[in-house]
Every structure is written in C-alpha cells, then in structure tokens.
Design a protein that fits this description.
Layout lengths: L18 E6 L4 E6 L4 H10 L7 E4 L5 H13 L2 E6 L2 E5 L7 E2 L1 H6 L7 H8 L1 E5 L12 H9 L3 E5 L2 E5 L8 E3 L5 H11 L5 E5 L5 H12 L3 E6 L2 E5 L8 E3 L4 H14 L1 E6 L9 H7 L3 E4 L3 E6 L11 E3 L11 H8 L4 E6 L10 H6 L3 E6 L2 E6 L7 E3 L3 H13 L3 E5 L11 H7 L3 E6 L8
Helix pairs in contact: 1-2, 1-7, 4-6, 5-6, 6-7, 8-10, 8-12, 10-12
The protein binds uridine-diphosphate-2(N-acetylglucosaminyl) butyric acid (EPU).
Length: 448
C-alpha cells in the first residue's frame, strides 16, 4: 500500500483541546513554591538515554506536555519508556524498531530534533523530519545538520526529511558554529560521544542545561568536558552505559515566579532554586529595585503591590548564557509596566518574540514595538483585566503574570501552550493565594 503519510506541505496539525486561564488579579502573593525540574534539560537527557542499550533513570523530570511528547516519540521508535512514579522516567533503548522521527513529532515540538545526533551515532542512520517545514514557520536546523556533516555523516534532504547515514561510525572532528546554538551544541555533543576520535565544539553554548547534559553523559561513561567556557571536547567511546540522574531546577520557571511576586506584590520563597543558574537576571531585577535574596538553594522575593510604588526602568538585551535569557524577556516585559519611566528591550535571539507585547497592550501596557528586535515600555501603568490570546508558552506565562497584577478579571486564551513548559502553574499560583483557574476553551469568556 502506498505511504499514507502527508507531504510537509499537506500536513495539517491535529486539533488540540484549547484551554483558557481565568485570572482575578490584584491579590499579592505569599508563601513558598518549589521549582520543578528544567524542561530544557529533561528533554535532552531523555534523548541522551538512547545512546546506550542499558537502562537510564531520570528523577525530578517535570510533568509537562513537552516531556510527554518526547516520551511518546521515544516509545513510537520502540524505546521502552516507563514512569514508575510522577517525575521519574526510566528509559531502555536496547534496540529500536524504527529509525524514523516523523513530521507528527517534529510539528508538536522542535526539540524532537535533539534525537538526530544520538540516533545517528548509536545506530548509524536515521530519517528525521525537519521541524522547519514550511507549514510550521521558519525554524532553521542548519547548524545541527552542518555539525553532523562535520562528524562524517552523509545527509540528504528530501520531501521535508533529513536522510542521514554514518558509514561505519561517526568520526570526531572540529565543529565550529557561526554563532552560539543551545540544541546545536547539544546535538553535536551527543553525536560525538560515540564517534571515533576527538571532537572539539566551539563556540559551545554555556547554558546550565548543557552542563547538566554533560554531567549525565559523564555518568554514562562518556569522555566529555569543557576545556574553556565556550569549548567542549569529546573523546568518542565505543559504548556508553546506563546511569541515574536528577534533573537540575528550571531557571526559567524560577525567574517567572520572581517576576510574578515583583508585579503582583507580596513575599514568596522559591525552593530548589539556586540563583547561580539565573545568569544576569537576578542582577537586572535587583537593579530595577526588586528585593531578591539568594540562599544556598532558595530565592526570597519581595514585591511592591501595584499602586503602592514603582520600580526603576531598565534597558535589557537578551544574549546566550550567562547573558540575559531570551526566555525571561517576556516576563521581564511585564515588570517593565511597573517601572517609573521608559524601559527598552532588545531581543537579539529571535525574530518574532516581541509580537506578544500587542496582547500585553490590551491589558493597558504602554508598549511601542519599534521593529522585530526592539520595543519600549513606559510606566508605571496599572494593568486591567482583558481577553488576550497566546501562541507561545513564555508569552502565555507572562500574560498570566500581567493578569495577576491587573485590576479585574482576565481570560488568557490558548492557555494550553503554557502546559508545554510549566508544571502545574495554576496549582502553584493558587497555593500562593492567587485566583486562577484553567478551563476548557468553550467556557464563556465574558467577564461576569
Ligand atoms: N538557529 C539557526 N540555525 C540552527 C539553530 C538555531 O539559525 O540550526 C538560530 C535560531 O533560529 C535562533 C538562534 O539560532 O535565532 C539561537 O537558537 P538556539 O539554537 O540557541 O535555540 P534552541 O536550542 O533551538 C533552546 C531552548 C529555547 C531557548 C533557546 C535560546 C530548548 C528545547 N529550547 O532552543 O527555549 O529560547 O535555546 O536560549 O532547549 C523555551 O523553553 O521556551 C524555548 C524556546
């Protein structure tokens, strides 16, 4: 029978049940919240487990949609994935049935492309969908592909798929990126662990999640480490073994709760949240006047309630770690609405990460989007409840923060995107005293 799979240009993503957050703002936050395991570490650790046939055990894995999609993608390949209890994943990739990562997986989550390096290195071939297919938007993976070629892979691109082979074994080599890429670095590291000989990756991303992956690979028996802050060197091994690993805390979730407390007011303690992972973020919010105290494994935040004072405006430029994280740019934009004066944002990593500010404007924020990379936010503004739409998880979480600080009720449509990356966000905010509900989308969004 002919292959019934659609070509990339015919692909229609399946409908997902839409959700809406209903938030009654104006209540300060108080209490303690535990930060979950890092999404952007857990996804790569799950992928790394296919480098060995032995069982790997991961703990502190966040229970989020992206992890569910990665586990499902692995299971579809024939990898055994078990979840003996929430937050614990055991992966055994003794053998796989398919060396094929379909468009359906790539369309759900760009991070499925992290399977490219480990599957190719371990099994010598893979067919993997381009997550940058035309229907899904411009999301290049050229750096990943070039890195695999630098390690000796033969790669052809047809009908939206990369067909990759490693004749014999991948060969160590020089992987030189034109600029820093987090997953590009990780894919190169993963592939190089089983390549023949030595690989030097430069400039290597310095995000804590990359180091967490390196730590796990070392436990698996890989010879990998940093020889300079921006250089990772790998001596390939013939095989790796199973290992246990506890995922590091999610610094983006931690930063999101820091801003939530700053914009809604109140006093919150974040547990399991080492400041050292937050790069320049803590220093930036400190300069804005937010009270942040770093403990050994905790962060205490005290925020000024809306209407009782303002923060200082600031200019922020996103940059690879240890610079200001692009994933914290949108929460920080909400904080800028509470500053007396004009703050400036320069988004250097992405082309389309300022568009959501149009939705923040519906809550009353004084936002000027100057071009795809620059915006200005003038305050202080008392935000008000509004009906807003989101299409991205960071923007979604940020609009929840806006709604917490706002007067009145907000409906945040497209709330299911937030579940991709934040574990139980409404439960955590409720425990801090917020009034927030997650509802199916068909519920009336007319404020009563
Ligand atoms: N880029 C290319 N070619 C490539 C790869 C990247 O042009 O082959 C470009 C990207 O389009 C972007 C820039 O390089 O403009 C940097 O992207 P990078 O490769 O560093 O991003 P990523 O590895 O795809 C990870 C996180 C993102 C986070 C970025 C930057 C994961 C699963 N995702 O993406 O997280 O924003 O690094 O820190 O690790 C999120 O969690 O919400 C999220 C988007």
């Amino acid at each position: 029978m002919a292959d019934a799979r659609p070509f990339h240009w015919e692909y229609q993503p399946p409908a997902v049940p839409r959700e809406v957050f209903r938030v009654e703002g104006g209540r300060p936050l108080s209490g303690t919240v535990r930060v979950s395991g890092a999404k952007n570490a857990a996804l790569k650790l799950l992928a790394a487990a296919v480098l060995t046939g032995e069982r790997c055990r991961l703990t502190n894995v966040p229970e989020i949609e992206d992890v569910r999609v990665m586990a499902e993608t692995l299971a579809d390949l024939g990898v055994v994935v078990e979840r003996p209890e929430p937050g614990v994943y055991e992966v055994a990739a003794g053998d796989v049935d398919w060396l094929f990562v379909p468009l359906e997986a790539a369309a759900k989550m760009r991070a499925s492309f992290i399977l490219f390096g480990p599957l190719l290195a371990r099994f010598g071939r893979v067919i993997i969908s381009n997550p940058g297919g035309d229907r899904i938007g411009r999301r290049p993976v050229n750096l990943h592909v070039d890195a695999m070629r630098a390690l000796g892979a033969e790669i052809e691109y047809r009908n939206g798929y990369y067909f990759a082979k490693a004749p014999g074994r991948l060969r160590g080599g020089e992987v030189t990126f034109p600029f820093v890429s987090v997953m590009g670095t990780e894919n190169a590291v993963l592939a190089a662990t089983l390549a023949e000989g030595r690989t030097v990756i430069r400039p290597a991303a310095q995000e804590p999640e990359v180091d967490d992956l390196v730590a796990f690979l070392q436990k698996m028996g890989a010879a990998v480490g940093r020889t300079a802050p921006d250089t990772i060197v790998v001596e390939g091994r013939r095989r790796l073994r199973g290992a246990d690993h506890h995922v590091i805390p999610d610094r983006i979730e931690a930063g999101t709760f820091v801003v939530a407390t700053a914009v809604a007011g109140g006093r919150v303690t974040l547990e399991g949240a080492p400041c050292e992972f937050l790069g320049s973020f803590v220093e930036v919010v400190g300069r804005m006047g937010v009270q942040v105290a770093c403990g050994r494994d905790t962060i205490e935040v005290e925020g000024i309630p809306p209407g009782e004072g303002a923060y200082r405006p600031i200019d922020v430029e996103t940059a690879p770690y240890p610079g200001f994280a692009t994933d914290l740019q949108s929460p920080t934009s909400v904080l800028m609405t509470r500053c007396a004066g004009t703050s400036r944002l320069h988004e250097t990593i992405y082309e389309d990460r300022l568009e959501w500010l149009g939705e923040l404007r519906r809550m009353g924020a004084a936002v000027a989007i100057l071009d795809p990379h620059h915006a200005e936010i003038t305050g202080p503004t008392r935000l008000h409840g509004a009906d807003v739409n989101i299409s991205d998880l960071r923007a979604g979480a940020s609009l929840i923060l806006g709604a917490l600080a706002a007067e009145g009720t907000s409906f945040i449509h497209g709330g299911h995107h937030v579940r991709r990356g934040y574990e139980n966000i409404e439960r955590k905010f409720k425990d801090l005293g917020a009034r927030i509900e997650r509802l199916p989308e068909q519920v009336s969004s007319t404020p009563s």
